[in-house]
């Protein structure tokens, strides 16, 4: 092989790398999908008030599910608070299995954690009081701070339905 053929081969390789590294430009598609529900053909999918409002309406028509000040500038324990909130939600859904009709709302004030939600009145009051005490005791032991449950009950599951899509 001579020098010119080597240069031609190197030029071909450079050309191939340029072709494979092209920048493709297309129109931007601003389509947000998260937190939105599709309309069903029969319009029989029930939505609660929390589910009916899209995510961009948080703080206008809908509030946050976790209330804390750790996410502010200079806040402490940001990651620990997020992990604790997720643990609380999983614990509540496991302990109050199939009874929660709304989202679990977690409000932190100083050292106190208040947990709120709407539950179905499908169990006896004695068992409900037991579960309230059980939940408060275990969560306060694990999280090392006082826990207060603020639960509302409803007799019919359809009472929390805001609209059908």
Characterize the overall form.
extended
Helix content: 25-40%
CATH class: Alpha Beta
Report the end-to-end length measured between terminal Cα atoms. 72 Å
If classified by CATH, what would the architecture be? 2-Layer Sandwich
**Mean pLDDT over all positions:** 82
Kindly report the CATH topology.
GMP Synthetase, Chain A, domain 3
Largest sheet: 4 strands, mixed
Family: Belongs to the universal ribosomal protein uS3 family.
Subcellular location: Mitochondrion
Organism: Dendroctonus ponderosae
Pfam family, one: MRP-S24
Short description, anyone?
Its main location: mitochondrion. With 165 residues, this protein is of the alpha/beta class. It has 4 helices and 6 strands.
Notes on the protein architecture:
The chain has four helices and six strands; from the N terminus they run αβαβαββαββ. The chain has helices at residues 3-20, 49-52, 78-95, 125-143, and strands at residues 46-47, 66-67, 105-109, 112-120, 147-154, 163-164. The strands form two sheets. Strands 2-3-4-5 form a four-stranded mixed beta sheet, with helices on one face. A two-stranded antiparallel ribbon has the order 1-6. The radius of gyration is 27 Å and the shape is extended. The model has no long low-confidence stretch (mean pLDDT 82). One of its GO terms (cellular component) is ribonucleoprotein complex. It is found in: Mitochondrion. Keywords: Mitochondrion, Ribonucleoprotein, Ribosomal protein, Transit peptide. It comes from Dendroctonus ponderosae.
Looking at this protein, list some descriptive labels.
165 residues, alpha/beta, GMP Synthetase, Chain A, domain 3, 4-stranded mixed beta sheet, two-stranded antiparallel sheet, 4 helices, 36% helix, transit peptide, ribonucleoprotein, mitochondrion, ribosomal protein, Ribosomal_uS3m
